[in-house]
Amino acid sequence: MSEFDLIRRYFTRATPGAVLGVGDDAALLQPTAGKVLAVSTDMLVSGTHFFPDADPYLLGHKTLAVNLSDLAAMGASPRWATLAISLPAADEVWLERFSAGFFELAQQHGVDLVGGDTTRGPLNLCVTIFGEVPPQQALRRSGAQPGDDIWVSGTLGDAALALAHLQGRIALSEADFAACAQRLHQPQPRIELGLALRGVANSAIDVSDGLLADLGHIMECSNVGAEIDFDALPVSQVLRSYSQQKLALAGGDDYELCFTAPAARASEVRAIAERLGLPLTRIGKIVAGRACIVQDANGNPLNIESEGYDHFR
Ligand code: ADP
Ligand code: MG
């Protein structure tokens, strides 16, 4: 199969939201008047971000999901994506499954794949995603204010628990592993939440490297500190039953949103949770200074050694 057959067969679909999609030297895109583009790139490398034998369908999903998650964290609505892919071989079964996973999620979010690049090499997947947001409503990391509540969506730590199981660091029952593996392999980007938080949240980030690490970026960009109530962290029954609540702080791959909002907006945040059917939990507050304190229900501070995953540490 030639490179062009491969692109035509697996990566060329209708692009109703583009002026011109795959097949020319460049795609042509018409942004909506009055909006700014939100652009983000995320790369998944075999052996670093996934096991080389990972299910290609789930990989197709995750490759796009992690990029959509970045748009969610900006409060942007997704429109287009490009895909740069390096493959050891043109394995048709693999490509069929990978593109099925990718396009299923793309369709759910109205994303058109408008271009990319395809080369032979070690398995490497890189998506650039393009979304739109009214300029004044983008959810930045830099907007947190002392007194803001800190919120997170969904539950934290399950993906890290599944990874720990796969790496032989913990042994989960089959059913428990299945529940957590879903979180690891098929993260659900919180796009609707990001959109709902426009004009409500002061800052937001998606939790990909662990809550402490990612909240740390908000603190740094906003020049503020944080107090976290450890016992308020939303965790699954499974995480609790293995006493691994600490993974909610320092695990990774959650792809939930962490955001801050003025205390006066708390009832609006609760209404959003209700409307979306997505739990939103207040886990602490933004304070002056630069320290991050995690305390239990009795107000005793926890010792936090690990601050999340850093590729170069
Ligand atoms: P060029 O040589 O001009 O860079 P390519 O041969 O790399 O063009 O790509 C041909 C067309 O196919 C371009 O429109 C490009 O954007 C698109 N394309 C290449 N690889 C992919 C891919 N993996 N997914 C989607 N579109 C792709
Ligand atoms: Mg090219």
Structure description:
This protein has 313 residues and is α+β, with helices and mostly antiparallel strands. It folds into two domains: 134 residues, 60s Ribosomal Protein L30, Chain: A, CATH 3.30.1330.10; 156 residues, Alpha-Beta Complex (Phosphoribosyl-aminoimidazole Synthetase, Chain A, domain 2), CATH 3.90.650.10. 33% of the residues lie in helices and 23% in strands. It contains ten helices and ten strands. A six-stranded mixed beta sheet has the order 6-8-5-9-7-10, sandwiched between helices. The protein has a four-stranded mixed beta sheet with strand order 1-4-2-3. Helix 2 runs parallel beside helix 3 and helix 4 crosses helix 5. It is globular and about 65 Å long. The chain starts with a helix and ends in an 18-residue tail after the last strand. Bound molecules: adenosine-5'-diphosphate and magnesium ion (MG). The site of adenosine-5'-diphosphate (ADP) has 13 residues, from helix 1, strand 2 and strand 3.
Number of helices: 10
Strands in their spatial order, largest beta sheet: 6-8-5-9-7-10
Give the N-terminus to C-terminus distance in angstroms: 41 Å
| CATH top level assignment of the largest domain | Alpha Beta
Question: How would you state the average pLDDT, rounded?
Answer: 95
Query: What fraction of the residues are assigned to beta strands by DSSP?
Result: 15-25%
- Structural class by SSE content: alpha+beta
Overall number of domains? 2
Helix content range of the residues, please?
A: 25-40%
List how many beta strands DSSP finds: 10
Largest sheet: 6 strands, mixed
Unreliable parts: 306-313
CATH topology of the largest domain: Phosphoribosyl-aminoimidazole Synthetase, Chain A, domain 2
What is the chain-wise order of helices and strands? Answer: HEHEHEEEHHHEHEHHEHEE
Shape-level CATH architecture of the largest domain: Alpha-Beta Complex
**Shape type:** globular
What ligand species are in this complex?
adenosine-5'-diphosphate, magnesium ion
CATH superfamily of the largest domain: PurM-like C-terminal domain
* Rg, nearest Å: 20 Å
